[in-house]
Design a protein that fits this description.
four-stranded antiparallel β-sheet, Hypothetical Protein Tm1070, Chain: A, 6 helices, alpha+beta, 17% helix, 35% strand, 307 residues
């Protein structure tokens, strides 16, 4: 499968990768705060402070295209969005430009399931790279608000929120990474519910070509452990693994003395990964009950409230 046919984003455009799931209604939403300005005094101070840490040439390379884009748009506050659709293996499939431009105070909600069907893509699990034309021009270089991802079926709704960033990720010439450690302190493996971890091997480089090979360990309250292999994650791809996938069917008996609860620690050397924690029903439907970014899903914490 081909990679991106053209440059899919500029270095200063905030972006993030989100998963879609076959059989669910997948929706993407964002509300732009009324206070949003691409550049104001606070952001300008941050830019100046950041530029003082670099030499002049580096500052021009970093800020020049962004400032030129802002000036050529008449310092417009309007934001535009485009979506790139990838397979879970990280292969580029197609793109979609959202036709409207959005001002501060505006919001949108995109039915991704409907969009995928309109793009003639078969029902499957995909990744969507959401790209914003401009974010906050400060040191964070992020979206001015958090995107929300909503997944629905006839009985359940699961939601998580996260921001988009223009910072370097897994792009060695700009920023090297020591590694990734993801902790889910409340995984569940019972006859009713089983937890999953979904990891995304993302990068700010559209030509990124390095697979990830994370490993996982499951820890009980008494300190006993199981070792697991997460499997390979393709560049710009994603992989979801349940605790049963990682540690085998013995995971249920292993956690049974502790009401099916445990902690997973997933690590990967030399690169950073995006992590999602999922809660699914332990049946043939594997219904999605909860999802959260970098933290245990809300449904994981339900038992704590009861106690």
């Amino acid at each position: 499968m081909p990679r991106f046919p053209v440059t899919p984003w500029k270095p200063y455009e905030p972006r993030f990768i989100l998963p879609t799931f076959a059989g669910l209604d997948n929706r993407l939403g964002l509300s732009i705060p009324v206070w949003y300005r691409p550049l104001n005094l606070r952001y300008l101070r941050s830019l100046v402070a950041g530029s003082l840490k670099k030499n002049f040439i580096e500052s021009v390379k970093d800020l020049g295209p962004e400032l030129f884009s802002l000036a050529s748009s008449g310092f417009s506050r309007k934001l535009r969005f485009k979506l790139h659709i990838l397979s879970r293996r990280g292969d580029y499939l197609t793109s979609h430009v959202i036709p409207s431009a959005f001002e501060p105070g505006a919001s949108f909600d995109i039915d991704l399931s409907k969009l995928l069907a309109e793009l003639k893509l078969p029902e499957d699990d995909y990744l969507v790279v959401a790209v914003m034309s401009r974010g906050r021009m400060d040191g964070v270089r992020s979206s001015p608000a958090s995107f929300s991802m909503t997944y629905l079926d006839q009985d359940n709704v699961a939601i998580y929120r996260t921001g988009a960033f223009a910072r370097p990720l897994n792009e060695g010439r700009l920023k090297s990474h020591v590694g990734f450690t993801g902790i889910n302190p409340k995984v569940i493996a019972t006859q009713d519910v089983v937890s999953s971890v979904l990891l995304i091997n993302h990068s700010s480089d559209p030509e990124y070509a390095f697979p990830a090979h994370p490993t996982s360990v499951l820890i009980r309250e008494d300190g006993e452990q199981l070792q697991g292999d997460f499997g390979e994650i393709a560049p710009l791809g994603a992989r979801e693994m349940s605790v049963a996938d990682m540690f085998g069917p013995q995971v249920f008996d292993f956690l049974k003395p502790f009401n099916g609860r445990g902690t997973t620690v997933t690590t990967c050397r030399g690169m950073t990964l995006a992590s999602l924690h999922l809660q699914r029903s332990n049946d043939n439907r594997r219904t999605l009950l909860g999802i959260e970014h970098s933290r245990p899903a809300h449904m994981n914490l339900a038992g704590i409230v009861q106690h």
